[in-house]
Amino acid sequence: MSWVSGTQAGLQGLLNVTVDSLAEYCGLTGDQQENSVFLERQLGLLQRNPSQSAINSEFCAKYLPALVDAYNVQDAAFSIPMRMLNVVAYLPYFARFLLTTRTSVCKTQARRMATASSTPADPAYLVEMCQFLSTLLALQGANSVSEEDKQALLPKLREWSRKYQRQQITRCLKQLEDDPETTVMADGLKQHCEKFLNECGFDGCGKSGTSKLLQCSRCKTAVYCDRDHQKKSWPFHKATCFPAVF
Ligand SMILES: [Zn+2]
Ligand SMILES: [Zn+2]
What we know:
Elements: H1 8-15, H2 19-25, H3 36-47, H4 52-72, H5 80-88, H6 92-101, H7 105-115, H8 123-140, H9 147-164, H10 167-176, H11 180-198, E1 214-215, E2 223-224, H12 227-237
Antiparallel strand pairs: 1-2
Helix pairs in contact: 2-4, 4-5, 5-8, 7-8, 7-9, 8-10, 8-11, 9-10
The structure holds zinc ion (2 copies).
One zinc ion is lined by residues 216, 218-219, 222, 237, 241.
Protein backbone atom coordinates (compact mmCIF):
# COMPACT_ATOMS: atom_id res chain seq x y z
CA MET A 1 0.00 0.00 0.00
CA SER A 2 1.46 3.38 -0.95
CA TRP A 3 1.36 6.52 1.13
CA VAL A 4 -0.60 8.50 -1.43
CA SER A 5 -3.41 5.96 -1.64
CA GLY A 6 -4.43 6.62 1.97
CA THR A 7 -7.48 8.77 2.50
CA GLN A 8 -7.27 11.99 4.52
CA ALA A 9 -9.01 10.24 7.40
CA GLY A 10 -6.58 7.37 7.10
CA LEU A 11 -3.57 9.66 7.24
CA GLN A 12 -4.97 11.54 10.23
CA GLY A 13 -5.49 8.20 11.93
CA LEU A 14 -1.92 7.24 11.16
CA LEU A 15 -0.59 10.27 13.04
CA ASN A 16 -2.76 9.55 16.07
CA VAL A 17 -1.08 6.71 17.97
CA THR A 18 -3.49 4.86 20.24
CA VAL A 19 -3.53 1.38 21.75
CA ASP A 20 -6.27 0.44 19.28
CA SER A 21 -4.41 1.74 16.23
CA LEU A 22 -1.32 -0.23 17.29
CA ALA A 23 -3.47 -3.34 17.72
CA GLU A 24 -5.03 -2.78 14.28
CA TYR A 25 -1.65 -2.49 12.52
CA CYS A 26 -0.45 -5.59 14.38
CA GLY A 27 -3.45 -7.37 12.80
CA LEU A 28 -5.12 -8.05 16.18
CA THR A 29 -8.42 -6.29 15.49
CA GLY A 30 -10.70 -5.38 12.63
CA ASP A 31 -10.81 -6.89 9.17
CA GLN A 32 -7.54 -5.31 8.13
CA GLN A 33 -4.38 -7.27 7.63
CA GLU A 34 -1.37 -6.38 9.71
CA ASN A 35 0.48 -3.42 8.23
CA SER A 36 4.20 -3.21 8.88
CA VAL A 37 4.67 0.18 7.17
CA PHE A 38 1.98 1.84 9.28
CA LEU A 39 3.15 0.07 12.44
CA GLU A 40 6.76 1.28 11.95
CA ARG A 41 5.47 4.81 11.33
CA GLN A 42 3.45 4.73 14.56
CA LEU A 43 6.28 3.21 16.59
CA GLY A 44 8.53 6.02 15.32
CA LEU A 45 5.98 8.61 16.46
CA LEU A 46 5.53 6.79 19.76
CA GLN A 47 9.22 7.13 20.61
CA ARG A 48 8.82 10.92 20.66
CA ASN A 49 5.47 10.83 22.46
CA PRO A 50 5.61 11.91 26.14
CA SER A 51 2.84 9.36 26.89
CA GLN A 52 4.89 6.51 25.39
CA SER A 53 5.09 4.40 28.55
CA ALA A 54 1.38 4.93 29.32
CA ILE A 55 0.38 3.88 25.79
CA ASN A 56 2.64 0.80 25.86
CA SER A 57 1.29 -0.17 29.30
CA GLU A 58 -2.33 0.23 28.23
CA PHE A 59 -1.60 -1.76 25.07
CA CYS A 60 -0.19 -4.61 27.18
CA ALA A 61 -3.07 -4.57 29.66
CA LYS A 62 -5.58 -4.85 26.81
CA TYR A 63 -3.83 -6.78 24.04
CA LEU A 64 -0.84 -8.74 25.35
CA PRO A 65 -2.53 -12.19 25.32
CA ALA A 66 -3.84 -11.55 21.77
CA LEU A 67 -0.40 -10.36 20.66
CA VAL A 68 1.31 -13.48 22.04
CA ASP A 69 -1.34 -15.65 20.32
CA ALA A 70 -0.61 -13.85 17.04
CA TYR A 71 3.13 -14.33 17.66
CA ASN A 72 2.69 -18.05 18.34
CA VAL A 73 0.99 -18.79 15.01
CA GLN A 74 3.84 -17.28 12.98
CA ASP A 75 6.65 -19.35 11.50
CA ALA A 76 9.14 -16.63 10.65
CA ALA A 77 11.83 -15.51 13.08
CA PHE A 78 10.91 -11.90 12.33
CA SER A 79 7.23 -10.99 12.30
CA ILE A 80 5.04 -8.02 13.10
CA PRO A 81 3.86 -9.47 16.44
CA MET A 82 7.54 -10.10 17.32
CA ARG A 83 8.36 -6.49 16.45
CA MET A 84 5.63 -5.25 18.80
CA LEU A 85 6.52 -7.69 21.57
CA ASN A 86 10.08 -6.37 21.43
CA VAL A 87 8.73 -2.87 22.09
CA VAL A 88 6.90 -3.91 25.27
CA ALA A 89 9.29 -6.62 26.49
CA TYR A 90 10.75 -4.45 29.28
CA LEU A 91 7.39 -3.67 30.89
CA PRO A 92 6.22 -5.41 34.09
CA TYR A 93 3.09 -6.48 32.18
CA PHE A 94 5.21 -8.68 29.91
CA ALA A 95 7.26 -10.08 32.81
CA ARG A 96 4.05 -10.97 34.65
CA PHE A 97 2.55 -12.55 31.55
CA LEU A 98 5.60 -14.82 31.15
CA LEU A 99 5.61 -15.75 34.85
CA THR A 100 1.89 -16.42 35.22
CA THR A 101 1.22 -18.20 31.91
CA ARG A 102 4.55 -20.07 31.85
CA THR A 103 4.79 -19.43 28.12
CA SER A 104 8.33 -19.96 26.88
CA VAL A 105 8.51 -17.26 24.24
CA CYS A 106 12.29 -17.58 24.60
CA LYS A 107 12.26 -21.19 23.45
CA THR A 108 10.00 -20.34 20.50
CA GLN A 109 12.08 -17.38 19.35
CA ALA A 110 15.35 -19.33 19.65
CA ARG A 111 13.86 -22.26 17.69
CA ARG A 112 12.69 -19.97 14.88
CA MET A 113 16.06 -18.23 14.63
CA ALA A 114 17.94 -21.55 14.81
CA THR A 115 15.90 -23.24 12.10
CA ALA A 116 15.39 -20.30 9.69
CA SER A 117 16.78 -21.29 6.31
CA SER A 118 17.57 -17.74 5.25
CA THR A 119 18.81 -14.58 6.93
CA PRO A 120 16.82 -11.34 6.60
CA ALA A 121 18.33 -9.10 3.92
CA ASP A 122 17.85 -6.05 6.12
CA PRO A 123 20.26 -6.09 9.10
CA ALA A 124 17.73 -3.98 11.06
CA TYR A 125 15.50 -7.06 11.23
CA LEU A 126 18.39 -9.14 12.54
CA VAL A 127 19.15 -6.58 15.21
CA GLU A 128 15.47 -6.57 16.28
CA MET A 129 15.38 -10.36 16.47
CA CYS A 130 18.58 -10.55 18.47
CA GLN A 131 17.54 -7.76 20.82
CA PHE A 132 14.27 -9.58 21.48
CA LEU A 133 15.97 -12.93 22.06
CA SER A 134 18.50 -11.24 24.33
CA THR A 135 15.69 -9.82 26.51
CA LEU A 136 13.94 -13.21 26.55
CA LEU A 137 17.17 -14.98 27.53
CA ALA A 138 17.50 -12.52 30.42
CA LEU A 139 13.88 -13.03 31.54
CA GLN A 140 13.51 -16.77 30.99
CA GLY A 141 17.10 -18.06 31.09
CA ALA A 142 19.30 -19.75 28.49
CA ASN A 143 18.14 -23.13 29.88
CA SER A 144 14.80 -22.61 28.17
CA VAL A 145 16.56 -23.01 24.81
CA SER A 146 17.01 -26.63 23.67
CA GLU A 147 20.58 -27.84 23.24
CA GLU A 148 19.91 -28.59 19.58
CA ASP A 149 18.70 -25.04 18.87
CA LYS A 150 21.58 -23.59 20.85
CA GLN A 151 24.15 -25.49 18.78
CA ALA A 152 22.44 -24.38 15.56
CA LEU A 153 22.17 -20.77 16.70
CA LEU A 154 25.71 -20.21 17.99
CA PRO A 155 27.50 -20.34 14.60
CA LYS A 156 24.81 -18.09 13.09
CA LEU A 157 25.20 -15.52 15.84
CA ARG A 158 29.00 -15.62 15.53
CA GLU A 159 28.77 -14.95 11.82
CA TRP A 160 26.21 -12.11 12.23
CA SER A 161 28.24 -10.62 15.05
CA ARG A 162 31.39 -10.54 12.88
CA LYS A 163 29.56 -9.27 9.84
CA TYR A 164 27.41 -6.54 11.36
CA GLN A 165 29.29 -5.60 14.56
CA ARG A 166 26.08 -4.70 16.40
CA GLN A 167 26.01 -4.86 20.18
CA GLN A 168 22.51 -6.43 20.26
CA ILE A 169 23.79 -9.41 18.23
CA THR A 170 27.02 -9.75 20.23
CA ARG A 171 25.16 -9.54 23.55
CA CYS A 172 22.78 -12.29 22.46
CA LEU A 173 25.74 -14.47 21.45
CA LYS A 174 27.52 -13.91 24.75
CA GLN A 175 24.37 -14.79 26.71
CA LEU A 176 24.11 -18.10 24.90
CA GLU A 177 27.83 -18.70 25.52
CA ASP A 178 27.27 -18.10 29.27
CA ASP A 179 29.78 -15.25 29.30
CA PRO A 180 30.01 -14.31 33.04
CA GLU A 181 29.98 -10.52 32.59
CA THR A 182 26.99 -10.65 30.23
CA THR A 183 25.17 -12.99 32.63
CA VAL A 184 25.49 -10.39 35.41
CA MET A 185 24.06 -7.73 33.09
CA ALA A 186 21.20 -10.02 32.07
CA ASP A 187 20.38 -10.78 35.72
CA GLY A 188 20.25 -7.03 36.36
CA LEU A 189 17.78 -6.58 33.50
CA LYS A 190 15.58 -9.40 34.82
CA GLN A 191 15.55 -7.85 38.30
CA HIS A 192 14.65 -4.47 36.82
CA CYS A 193 11.78 -5.92 34.76
CA GLU A 194 10.37 -7.97 37.67
CA LYS A 195 10.99 -5.41 40.42
CA PHE A 196 7.45 -4.03 40.34
CA LEU A 197 6.01 -7.53 40.74
CA ASN A 198 7.73 -8.37 44.02
CA GLU A 199 8.87 -5.16 45.69
CA CYS A 200 6.71 -2.47 47.31
CA GLY A 201 6.09 0.21 44.68
CA PHE A 202 6.44 3.06 47.18
CA ASP A 203 9.67 4.82 46.30
CA GLY A 204 12.35 4.02 48.84
CA CYS A 205 10.37 1.38 50.81
CA GLY A 206 12.15 -1.68 49.41
CA LYS A 207 10.01 -4.30 51.20
CA SER A 208 9.83 -7.45 49.11
CA GLY A 209 8.49 -11.00 49.23
CA THR A 210 5.39 -11.86 47.26
CA SER A 211 3.30 -13.50 50.02
CA LYS A 212 2.65 -10.52 52.26
CA LEU A 213 2.38 -7.80 49.65
CA LEU A 214 -0.90 -6.35 48.37
CA GLN A 215 -1.34 -6.48 44.63
CA CYS A 216 -2.91 -3.61 42.69
CA SER A 217 -6.18 -5.25 41.68
CA ARG A 218 -6.50 -3.18 38.50
CA CYS A 219 -3.23 -3.82 36.65
CA LYS A 220 -1.84 -6.65 38.83
CA THR A 221 1.64 -5.36 37.98
CA ALA A 222 2.37 -3.41 41.16
CA VAL A 223 2.54 -4.54 44.80
CA TYR A 224 2.59 -2.67 48.11
CA CYS A 225 3.49 -3.54 51.69
CA ASP A 226 0.36 -1.78 53.02
CA ARG A 227 -2.60 0.44 52.05
CA ASP A 228 -0.75 3.59 53.06
CA HIS A 229 2.11 2.99 50.63
CA GLN A 230 -0.38 2.04 47.93
CA LYS A 231 -2.30 5.29 48.45
CA LYS A 232 0.82 7.44 48.47
CA SER A 233 2.10 5.77 45.28
CA TRP A 234 -1.12 6.21 43.32
CA PRO A 235 -0.33 9.67 41.86
CA PHE A 236 2.76 8.13 40.20
CA HIS A 237 1.40 4.65 39.53
CA LYS A 238 -1.83 5.74 37.86
CA ALA A 239 -0.05 6.74 34.60
CA THR A 240 0.79 3.11 33.83
CA CYS A 241 -2.05 1.34 35.70
CA PHE A 242 -4.65 -0.15 33.34
CA PRO A 243 -7.23 -2.93 33.84
CA ALA A 244 -5.43 -6.06 32.69
CA VAL A 245 -7.36 -8.70 30.74
CA PHE A 246 -5.02 -11.37 32.07
ZN1 LIG B 1 6.07 -0.18 51.28
ZN1 LIG C 1 -2.10 -0.76 39.16
